[in-house]
Amino acid sequence: MLYGIFGYPIGHSLSPLMHNTAFAHHGLDAVYLPFAVHPAHLATAVKSMTALPICGVNVTIPHKQAVMAWMDELSPEARLIGAVNTIHLRDGRLHGYNTDGIGFLRALEEAGSEVAGRTVMLLGAGGAARAIAVQLCLSGIRRLYLANRTPTRAEDLATYLRQNLPYADISVLTMGESSLAAHLPHTDIVVNATSIGMQPHDPMLLPPTELAPRHLVCDIVYRPLHTPLLRAAQERGAWTVDGLGMLLHQGAKAFEIWTECTFPIPLVRAQLLQNFTEQSTASSPPRKE
Ligand code: NAP
Known about the structure:
This protein has 289 residues and is α/β, with parallel strands linked by helices. 40% of the residues lie in helices and 19% in strands. The strands form 2 sheets. The protein has a 6-stranded mixed beta sheet, sandwiched between helices. The radius of gyration is 19 Å and the shape is globular. The structure holds NADP nicotinamide-adenine-dinucleotide phosphate.
């Protein structure tokens, strides 16, 4: 059985490592391959799934919205988020899912946190933030503070959520230290869903001194795993959840959809951590003897 991931470029993807580990664990006769699909060939690639057949694929940047056009069925989450990250070929039909939001939620649950009734400060309004925001609203949070570098994107997301998931009280905040600091005392869960934290000299989006033990601070950036935000939160006594949790659990949900088997979370986590260690060793300068 053939599985894979469609993206462009695709060289960095950790999904082949994750899913091939899980297939081997279950003794399944299956392989998962990375496919660099140029946007001009996306329609052909998606239609080829039925012909070859390819039993399932993950979909990543830049194809998550475009593939929706060729799905025979869409899950409620994929429809609400407006993006597909998992396709399953079932009975000759292409079923589109989005497992990013549920992956994020499961990572929080794994860390022992409930979101129902909580106030969440979500930084970012890109694709990942949108999936998380939809899932948080579906899961019964009480209040959502949204902040983004480009304010109109946060406003647009807030309008969409108010119209389609009118369960939480949603406010848009200015992405500035003073505005965020003023709202941190009323916040239970802080989520960084921007790409800030990936580069060594990235700014802190939040004033770290305002973080407190009452906060659960999540960063979905996973390279590096210990981002400056998470380090600052730990220094202030806050709980933290790193980006590996969402990465693992979005993959786990996709694997369950495809195979109806349980994803071996501890085994795959260990493989990913080993991969991170090898990458950081390979990229560090040689030691002087
Ligand atoms: P995206 O759609 O391109 O969105 C990027 C977000 O980061 C936007 O909100 C953008 O703000 C913000 N941003 C970028 N540069 C910024 C800067 N210099 N200052 C402030 N904000 C900035 O990307 P995405 O797919 O949502 O991914 C966001 C991050 O999440 C990436 O680091 C990605 O690796 C990570 N991620 C992790 C997982 C996981 O499983 N752990 C899953 C998906 C994504 P503007 O709107 O102003 O541009």
